[in-house]
Design goal:
Elements (H helix, E strand, L loop, with lengths): L1 H29 L5 E4 L16 E8 L19 E8 L5 E8 L3 E6 L2 E11 L2 E11 L4 E7 L1 E2 L2
Parallel strand pairs: 2-8
Antiparallel strand pairs: 1-5, 2-5, 3-4, 3-6, 6-7, 7-9
């Protein structure tokens, strides 16, 4: 009886070890093919490690030069997407992807492959230009959180 239970457990462990690298490799192959960006609602509800496909994710909070959260609104109550974001994502093999978008403050990047990301934010608000560049390491199945405090442009 003990020997049959031991044999079954060994067989189950062997199957688990054989299946695990395959699913991880599949996730790595998909990462980087569809990098996307969206505004983040700042509700601190993204406790996941990576995105739903197992790719890397960056969640960035944007503060102005005074340390206040950037969440610009127009006079009519609509969002004022006055922050331009430039993302350069470089994988270990040297492949670089570039993504540009506008936001009104905090944002989330998903679908990132393992590598390095350089994120530059530029905001023109009330005639004043502020900017910040951050570099970060990206890993699949991990979420990197950044706080970007904008500084006056030189």
């Amino acid at each position: 009886m003990k020997q049959s239970v031991f044999t079954v457990l060994c067989a189950a462990m062997g199957l688990a070890l054989v299946a695990w690298p395959t699913s991880r490799a599949r996730a790595q192959d998909d990462c980087g093919t569809a990098i996307s960006a969206e505004d983040d609602d700042n509700q601190a509800d993204d406790d996941s490690q990576g995105d739903e496909n197992g790719c890397g994710m960056v969640v960035a909070d944007m503060d102005d030069e005074n340390g206040d959260e950037v969440d610009d609104m127009n006079d009519d109550g609509t969002t004022d997407d006055d922050v331009e974001i430039d993302v350069e994502d470089t994988t270990p093999d040297g492949t670089t992807q570039v993504l540009q978008f506008h936001t009104n403050g905090s944002f989330r990047l998903t679908g990132l492959p393992t590598g390095h990301a350089k994120i530059t934010a530029t905001r023109v608000h009330n005639g004043v230009t502020t900017t910040r560049t951050r570099k970060t390491r990206v890993r699949e199945q991990h979420t990197r959180r950044l706080r970007m405090r904008l500084r006056p442009a030189l």
